[in-house]
Design brief:
Blueprint (H helix, E strand, L loop, with lengths): L1 E15 L3 E3 L2 E3 L3 E4 L6 H13 L5 H4 L12 H14 L2 E11 L9 H12 L6 E6 L5 H4 L3 E12 L2
Parallel strand pairs: 5-6
Antiparallel strand pairs: 1-4, 1-7, 2-3, 5-7
Length: about 160
């Protein structure tokens, strides 16, 4: 069995009047992500981490924001398509470790639901997914409420 790690990162600008999607669920907020898709930075970071661990290119190569079929697409669909791509290369997920950086809203009450949603899509146990939330202590774009970011690390296995 071969083991591979991957890391992904995503950023989006926050704007008033858009829904905020994180980890596949809608988070009550007065701001959401400005994006071609639904702007779920956590899922996008996970997709990039999965693709990287499989030795593939980034999410934009497979689901470009210049392609209208991905306009406003639910990022859970992109994650499902990413899982097909890595599965075709013989990989499956061992675990996902991630962090979301956002000043508001506080995410602690939503983390279990995000983990459940992602575990269902990825066909892994909820215990194999970690989601942490942090702030920048009001520093920078995230601290000013202008944007948010997510970082994900994954561990994949490939059968010999």
């Amino acid at each position: 069995m071969h083991i591979r790690t991957g890391q992904g990162i995503d950023f989006h600008k926050l704007i008033t009047g858009k829904p905020l999607w994180l980890g596949g669920i809608n988070i009550p907020s007065d701001k959401g992500c400005l994006a071609h898709s639904d702007g779920d930075v956590l899922i996008h970071a996970i997709c990039d981490a999965l693709l990287g661990a499989a030795g593939m290119r980034d999410i934009g190569c497979y689901f470009p924001d210049s392609d209208e079929q991905y306009k406003n697409i639910d990022s859970k669909i992109l994650l499902g398509k990413t899982l097909v791509l890595i599965s075709e290369k013989g990989f499956s997920i061992i675990n996902i470790d991630s962090t979301v950086c956002l000043e508001k809203p506080r995410l602690s009450e939503y983390i279990d639901r995000m983990r459940e949603c992602l575990a269902g899509i990825c066909s892994i146990e909820k215990s194999c997914i970690s989601i942490k939330a942090t702030t920048t202590e009001t520093m920078g774009f995230a601290g000013r409420g202008e944007g948010l970011m997510a970082i994900a690390n994954v561990l994949l296995k490939k059968k010999d």
